[in-house]
Amino acid sequence: MEIGFDLISDLNLGPDSNFNWENKATSLYCIVAGNVSTDIKIVGLVLNHLSKFYQGVFYIPGSLEYETTDNFKRRTNEILTLCRRIRNVAVLYHNVVIIDGIAVCGCTGWYGKENEYNFEEIYGANRFEDLIYLKNSIEKLQKHLDVKKILLVTNSVPDQKLYFGTNNEPEVLPDLSITLLADSENKISHWAYGSNGKSTDTYIDKINYISNPYISNSPYWAKRINVEI
User: Fold this and answer.
1) Rounded to the nearest 10 degrees, how much is the dihedral formed by the CA atoms of 17, 110, 184, 149?
2) What residues form DSSP beta bridges with 4?
3) Is a pLDDT exceeding 70 seen at residue 49?
């Protein structure tokens, strides 16, 4: 059996942006890997719009959603409250969704320019919390008898190798790929992520890494992820 997920990320929508997903869905489920907008109202409108075309929309907030606040917990609570009101939308914040043997698990992850943004002081605690959460979740899912495959979703690029030697690599990486050490049963098959400047679909150590950022002024379609059970 094969289950499909449509991957969307990095829309970077502003008040004058247009977003219409009618007749673009190719799967029953959709993954939104963050960076929708700095405006939480726009985030709500986009997720509500997507919920009309999918049985489930699985969303992880991106760093963009936190740019306009200095209180990360308050912004997270705003996002959680907003999404609870939208049918078919689940936030992957300390929340794992299991569909027909596939566990969808995610976190934001944090990255940046260490000197320019004083990264460790502002984001360090959030980065550490996400790493611990992701590691602990993967460990628990190893023992879950109903989970055959794990699909990870992060806003951050999970591994330095996925920059492919370009100059786009930030000074501070979240080192999310270290959590793969917890995958003792080799259940992780796919890793969807955002915050990347180009579309990616590649394998590293038998895991399929996929990104699908919106590129301005170009036609945009979902990238379908097929997970086979």
Assistant:
1) -10
2) 226
3) yes
Instruction: Of 50, 54, 48, 41, give the one whose Cα is nearest residue 14.
Output: 41
Tokens of 68: 């306009």
- Range list of H helices, the chain: 40-51, 72-84, 114-117, 119-142
pLDDT in tens, 61-73: 999 999 888 888 8
Segment 169-217, tens digit of pLDDT: 555 555 788 999 999 999 999 999 998 888 999 999 999 999 999 988 7
> In this structure, are strands 207-211 and 200-204 parallel, antiparallel, or unpaired?
antiparallel
DSSP state of 55: S
Judged against a pLDDT cut of 50, whether residue 53 lies above it is answered with: yes
Three-state DSSP class for residue 62: coil
DSSP helix/strand/coil, 127: helix
Q: What distance lies between CA 45 and its chain's CA centroid?
A: 18
**56 neighbors 29 (Cβ within 8 angstroms):** yes
Looking at residue 176, its pLDDT comes to 87
Domains of the chain listed by start with CATH number? 2-228 (3.60.21.10)
pTM: 0.92
Number of other CB atoms surrounding residue 229 within 10 Å? 12
Query: How far is residue 107's CA from residue 133's CA, in Å, rounded to a whole number?
Result: 8
| Inter-residue contact 200 to 225 (CB < 8 Å) | no
